[in-house]
Amino acid sequence: MFFSGKIFMFTCLIAFVFAIKYRKKYARENEAYILECPLNPTNTNETITWSQYNESISANIQRRVHATGKYLFFLPAVMNDTGLYTCTIQSTLKSKYSHVSLIMSESHDNCSAQPIYPQRLGMGTGVYILCPDIDLYEHKSNFIWYKECKPLHGERYMKIDTGLSLNHFTELDQGIYNCKFTYTYNGKTYTVNRFKNITMKAAYIQRKPTLETAINRTIEVALGDPLNISCSAFIGYNKSVLAAIFWSINGTHVASLNYSRFQEYARNYITPSHEFYIESTLHIRKVEEQDFNSNFTCFVSSSRGGQDSIVILKYPE
Ligand SMILES: *[C@@H]1O[C@H](CO)[C@@H](O)[C@H](O)[C@H]1NC(C)=O
Ligand SMILES: *[C@@H]1O[C@H](CO)[C@@H](O)[C@H](O)[C@H]1NC(C)=O
Ligand SMILES: *[C@@H]1O[C@H](CO)[C@@H](O)[C@H](O)[C@H]1NC(C)=O
Ligand SMILES: *[C@@H]1O[C@H](CO)[C@@H](O)[C@H](O)[C@H]1NC(C)=O
Ligand SMILES: *[C@@H]1O[C@H](CO)[C@@H](O)[C@H](O)[C@H]1NC(C)=O
Ligand SMILES: *[C@@H]1O[C@H](CO)[C@@H](O)[C@H](O)[C@H]1NC(C)=O
Ligand SMILES: *[C@@H]1O[C@H](CO)[C@@H](O)[C@H](O)[C@H]1NC(C)=O
Ligand SMILES: *[C@@H]1O[C@H](CO)[C@@H](O)[C@H](O)[C@H]1NC(C)=O
Ligand SMILES: *[C@@H]1O[C@H](CO)[C@@H](O)[C@H](O)[C@H]1NC(C)=O
Ligand SMILES: *[C@@H]1O[C@H](CO)[C@@H](O)[C@H](O)[C@H]1NC(C)=O
Ligand SMILES: *[C@@H]1O[C@H](CO)[C@@H](O)[C@H](O)[C@H]1NC(C)=O
């Protein structure tokens, strides 16, 4: 058991309450943690103080938890540090304050049960994974990167400064990464870990095509006007997948209808971030009375599944 029921419920409650209003930060027990005040003093007369639930926090650096200007140090953090912290800028005229909620989690070796920072990356290119929120830690050493809690080796991975550079990111590179380093403060050393959930911008492999335009909606158009309705679908990152997109009217494929009134043009394209789309545009030369009672349906399908969406025409208000 990693959590007792009570602590777990308490953490959930805190997470829920704070999710509404405050910026959230995550720390692991027994590791050094530094909170930064989001406010900046505008002149030298302004000082920052820290408090928790109206109790001011000491500046004595011998204390496990102490404040130094903009920064609140937890050396190390413990489970009951979970809570709301307030930094206040006091000046002669007025005071400003900001709340930060700190959420603690237990330290254990389960990679999937950590406070995780998300990062989504595009496929195909070289990527750079940053160790989040670590600029505040001045004296750091022994920097190591892990994936699924195993140290990373090999030519594909390159440590650059505090980040990890990766050649040609693919689906297989998705997972939980963590950076670990040693932090030295006031003669003592502490361990710090940061976990990141690295996912692809769209994990193509589990996806069915999804329509992104012409999604179940009505379009206002005047009788006799021409009209183009385009419908596009995101297919994934891999264009070798077969997919089709087409329009039907009242359930009949446009290709088998009267060509003088309806025409359909299909194309596909790739965005600079390698996303593959297919698109079909329905051209209506001249909108007629009966079109206002018709269902215009765009279909997309591939071996992964399909989706459809109905467009209804209506007279302008
Ligand atoms: C700082 O406070 C002193 C004394 O109250 C005052 O003379 C000075 O103008 C203040 N400086 C700023 C930048 O507000
Ligand atoms: C903090 O103190 C202020 C003023 O004394 C009071 O209005 C507020 O309710 C207190 N907040 C907490 C969390 O105790
Ligand atoms: C929190 O835990 C620390 C270390 O275990 C302990 O010294 C401190 O008294 C605890 N504080 C509260 C409010 O329970
Ligand atoms: C990582 O992110 C993916 C995609 O958002 C999600 O499905 C997965 O559950 C996340 N994993 C963890 C451990 O948070
Ligand atoms: C690790 O944590 C995840 C998510 O909390 C949980 O589903 C899984 O069972 C845990 N694995 C182990 C080995 O404890
Ligand atoms: C419809 O698309 C065609 C071809 O792109 C274009 O020539 C025409 O002007 C468009 N009509 C409307 C109403 O947008
Ligand atoms: C693209 O799809 C083909 C066929 O499913 C698969 O063999 C190939 O590995 C995929 N490529 C990428 C980059 O996912
Ligand atoms: C249009 O679609 C609606 C909802 O799917 C359906 O109830 C109706 O019968 C359709 N009308 C025609 C003419 O196909
Ligand atoms: C096709 O549409 C045109 C214009 O509305 C109409 O004149 C013609 O009779 C239609 N042809 C057929 C086969 O329905
Ligand atoms: C579609 O069905 C409706 C209702 O049956 C009909 O009024 C309309 O003429 C049909 N549209 C076309 C283009 O055939
Ligand atoms: C449009 O509505 C239909 C019927 O409610 C639904 O099956 C379909 O998934 C919807 N399409 C989109 C793109 O939301």
From TrEMBL:
Gene3D superfamilies (UniProt xref): Immunoglobulins
Cellular localization per UniProt: Membrane
Membrane topology: Single-pass type I membrane protein
Keyword line: Disulfide bond, Early protein, Glycoprotein, Host-virus interaction, Hydrolase, Immunoglobulin domain, Inhibition of host innate immune response by virus, Inhibition of host interferon signaling pathway by virus, Interferon antiviral system evasion, Membrane, NAD, Receptor, Repeat, Signal, Transmembrane, Transmembrane helix, Viral immunoevasion
Single GO MF descriptor: hydrolase activity
Leader peptide range in chain numbering: 1-19
Domain Ig-like stretches: 15-101, 209-314
GO cellular component: membrane
Keyword Oxidoreductase belongs to the record: no
Repeat as UniProt keyword: yes
SMART domains from the UniProt entry: IG
Family matches, as SUPFAM superfamilies: Immunoglobulin
Role of this protein: Counteracts the antiviral effects of host IFN-alpha/beta and key IFN-inducible proteins involved in viral RNA degradation suxh as host OAS1. Acts as a soluble IFN-alpha receptor and thus inhibits the interaction between host IFN-alpha and its receptor.
Family, as annotated: Belongs to the interleukin-1 receptor family.
Subunit structure: Interacts with host IFNA1.
Protein name, per record: Soluble interferon alpha/beta receptor OPG204
Biological source species: Pelobates cultripes (Western spadefoot toad)
